[in-house]
Amino acid sequence: MIWHLLGAGAIGQLFATRLIDAGVSVRILSRQPSDYYQLHLLEGKDKRTYMLHADAIDAEEPIKHLLICTKAPDTLDAIQAHQHRICSNAHILLLQNGMGQHEAVQALFPNANIWAGITTAGAWRSDPFTLHCVSQGTTEIGLLNTRSLGLPDDWEKLLPQPIAAANIRLSLWRKLAINCAINPLTAVHQCLNGELVNNPVFLEQMQAICDEVEKVINALDQPLFETSLIEHALLVANQTAKNRSSMLTDVLNSRPTEIDFITGYLCNQADQLGISLPFNQALLQQVKSLTS
Ligand code: KPL
After folding, report:
1. Rg of the chain over all Cα atoms, to the nearest angstrom
2. Domain end: 165, 196, 219, which one?
3. Domains held by the chain: number
């Protein structure tokens, strides 16, 4: 079996190495003409080297298993170049931040098996060929439109083994809610996650976001946590106090952010439910203006 990979950034490369360790073939779908490269993975005291093979640009072999680790806004563009090769009943696993892109991929491939995944694994690259894994984290995966438990083909062999999520939509919402509470504020205030907890003004704004997110969650009748969202968001902000959020990192690097797939998704859901979210709507526009 071959897993094709779209999005060979830090997380994409990390899962490529996990699949290779499990004896699975991985082919990278890249825009570069190179057909393989060496990747060094540094994890704890280990240093391992992997050969990552890329498909030729004109490859025609059908794609039956596709892992997508691009940033959410890049998903459809990235797929487009390879769309003709993707089997209608392919297994497509989206391991990304945000929500909304899964439905867009399902609409392109109505008969495909769409899997969604979220991970807390931490990895970064000191150069394109050197990957540092700082935490194995946990990875949850589930089929998007059914409640059947299971993992995509071969993923049960991965170490650490991903968790088969009974309700991956709930897990996606939990992650989205936390990202709504932390990411846009860190981008607007250009601050580390921990500063949101220590600055009373930022904290009040975080509370306002969480109150609005909870309005949507209540209307969807989908409780996320047993306690309030703000408690969980503060916990994550504290645990990642020294981190620069992914959204702030994108802003500082003048890259498009995932705001449309985080706060934007939340605001769309609210619109459909007839709920107004003035605070989140304003933040959505503010973050968009940072990178426009
Ligand atoms: O997931 C994150 C992100 O930066 O995207 C958080 C939880 C905010 C940690 O930085």
Report:
1. 19
2. 165
3. 2
Range of the domain at 156: 2-165
Tokens of 50: 């992997």
Q: Give residue 183 CA to ligand 1 midpoint distance, Å.
A: 6
- Show the low-confidence residues of the chain (pLDDT under 50): none
Going from the Cα of 35 to the center of ligand 1, the distance in angstroms, rounded, reads 33
pLDDT at 146: 80
The pLDDT value given to residue 148: 77
Residues designated catalytic: 175
* Same-domain status, 151 and 6: yes
Residues 150, 191 share a domain: no
CATH code of the domain in which 21 resides: 3.40.50.720
Instruction: State yes or no: cis peptide before 110, omega within 30 of 0.
Output: no
Question: H/E element holding 225?
Answer: none
Which tens digit of pLDDT belongs to each residue from 153-171? Answer: 999 999 999 999 999 999 9
Segment holding 48, helix H or strand E: strand 46-54
Ligand 1, atom 1, lies closest to the CA of 179
In this structure, the answer to whether residues 156 and 179 fall within a common structural domain is no
* pTM score of the predicted model: 0.95
